[in-house]
Specification:
Elements: E1 2-5, E2 8-11, H1 13-42, E3 45-50, H2 54-69, E4 74-79, H3 82-90, E5 96-100, E6 111-119, E7 121-126, E8 136-137, H4 139-142, E9 147-150, H5 154-165, E10 173-177, H6 180-188, E11 193-197, H7 198-202, E12 207-212, E13 218-225, H8 232-249
Parallel strand pairs: 3-4, 3-5, 8-12, 9-10, 9-11
Antiparallel strand pairs: 1-2, 5-13, 6-13, 7-11, 7-12
Length: 258
């Protein structure tokens, strides 16, 4: 393909022919890449990451509104922990996510965090639990109580740990489950207490919510990687969720959009 000259190299006739054919192949590869990119932006499906309690709750809340406006868009849900979701967003395995806010994660400038609402967290017990009729609970009142939760609930766990640390203690999380239904069952049966979004407690009979002194609301965000909104299906989802909470926010203080 090359022949040595006094000052360098020169293409042979075979080399020139190879160069022409290589240019054709590279042009086709470039054309295919552009076609695949355009196809991805036009697809009518999205992969949605959800944390098991907070994310799933918010998605159930907004889904009827979204599907009414976008019945042609298929949503494939992927339950995971906050950390797993962030990694999946960066690796383009998830298009958009709904999850609790974390100040550490918000520092990542490759991601867009859109706060959509505040979630009130409560201490949940069975309706016949000795604490069930208390107006509220404090860390000293519950520090020896067994608790159950979902696996890898990093944001909720951090909130509890920071609160308990003020009293020189740690929350006693006895068991963690993959399914939220198991958490609800263990609380309802009186085997343990839980730390859950109030909306979940209100939707499940047999358990009651108690305000835990010192706990603030947790912000819930819709998150996507910068540039992902060019995908038409992702763009529709983001727009629909924001519209839903703008409408909800006009009726109640729960929904807050920035």
């Amino acid at each position: 393909l090359l022949e040595r000259q006094y000052k360098g190299f020169q293409l042979t006739e075979q080399g020139k022919e190879f160069q022409k054919k290589a240019a054709v192949v590279l042009n086709e590869v470039d054309r295919f890449s552009r076609w695949a990119h355009e196809l991805a932006e036009k697809r009518d499906s999205i992969v949605l990451g959800l944390t098991r309690s907070t994310g799933s709750l918010v998605y159930a809340e907004v889904f009827p509104f979204f599907v009414q406006e976008n019945s042609n868009v298929q949503v494939i849900t992927k339950p995971a922990s906050s950390q797993e979701i962030i990694e999946a967003l960066k690796n383009h395995q998830i298009d958009v996510a709904i999850m609790p806010e974390s100040e550490d994660q918000k520092k990542d400038d490759t991601l867009v965090f859109c706060r959509i609402r505040d979630m009130e967290m409560v201490y949940a017990v069975a309706e016949d639990h000795p604490l069930a009729r208390e107006p509220y609970v404090t860390v000293p009142m519950i520090c020896k109580e067994k608790m159950v939760s979902t696996i890898n609930d990093f944001v909720k766990t951090r909130v509890l740990e920071e609160l308990f640390a003020q009293y020189g203690d740690k929350p006693y999380v006895w068991q963690r489950y993959d399914q939220l239904t198991m958490v609800i069952h263990m609380i309802r049966s009186g085997h343990a207490a839980g730390f859950l979004p109030q909306d979940i407690v209100l939707r499940n009979k047999g358990i009651v919510s108690l305000h835990l002194k010192g706990v603030e609301t947790i912000g819930v965000s819709m998150v996507w990687k910068k540039g992902s909104e060019k995908n038409q299906a992702v763009k529709k989802f983001i727009k629909s969720v924001r519209q839903y909470y703008e409408i909800a926010g006009s009726r109640t203080e729960k929904g807050k959009v920035i």
